[in-house]
Design a protein that fits this description.
Elements lengths: L1 E6 L12 H10 L3 E6 L4 E5 L5 H16 L5 E5 H9 L13 E6 L20 E5 L2 E5 L8 H5 L2 H4 L5 E5 H11 L1
Antiparallel strand pairs: 1-3, 1-4, 2-3, 5-7, 5-8, 6-7
Helix pairs in contact: 3-6
Length: 179
Amino acid sequence: MRWIALLRGINVGGSKKVPMARLRELLSGLGYDDVRTYVQSGNAVFDAPETDARTVAQRIERAIEDEFGFGSRITMRTREEWAAVVAANPFPDAVSEPKTLHVVFLSEQVAPSRLDDVDRAAFEPERFELHERELYLWLPDGIGRSKLAATLTERRLGDGVTATARNWRTVATLLELAG
C-alpha cells in the first residue's frame, strides 16, 4: 500500500532534528520500499505491506523514539485518501497562491460541533472548512500571524486529536511523489 506519513513537530526552531536522509534509511530499515521525503518538515512517501494506518504510524513513532530519543506523532494517509483531500479542496481559487492555502491533517475525525462557536465573521477574510479528517484553511496573509490558525488548536478540536498542517505546495507535491 502507498502511504504518506506526516511527522509532527520535527526540525522546528533547531530542535527535534531528523535529517531526511536518515528518515529515509529508518523507513527502509522498517521494510518499507520506494521511500521518498519532501522538505525538512517531515513528509515521507513509501510503500508498506501493512494496511492499517495506526500500525504503520506506531512502528514509525517507536523507531523515531529509539533512533533520535524523542517522540513525534505521525499522521498517516493512503495515496487514495490524499488524492481525495486534494479533490475536496473547498478553496480552489487559492491554489494559485499555495502559501495562503493550508490543510491541517487530523489524526481522527472531529465533530463539526467542536467548531460551532468559532465566529467566522470575526476572522474574515480568513476562512476554514472541516472535511472528514482535514481542516482546510485559507489565510490570505499567511499562517504566521493568523488569528484564525491560532484559534483552531488541538485543544479546540478535542482530546487525543493530533493536528499537523501543510501548505498547498507541500500537499500537491506529496501527491505527485505518491504517484
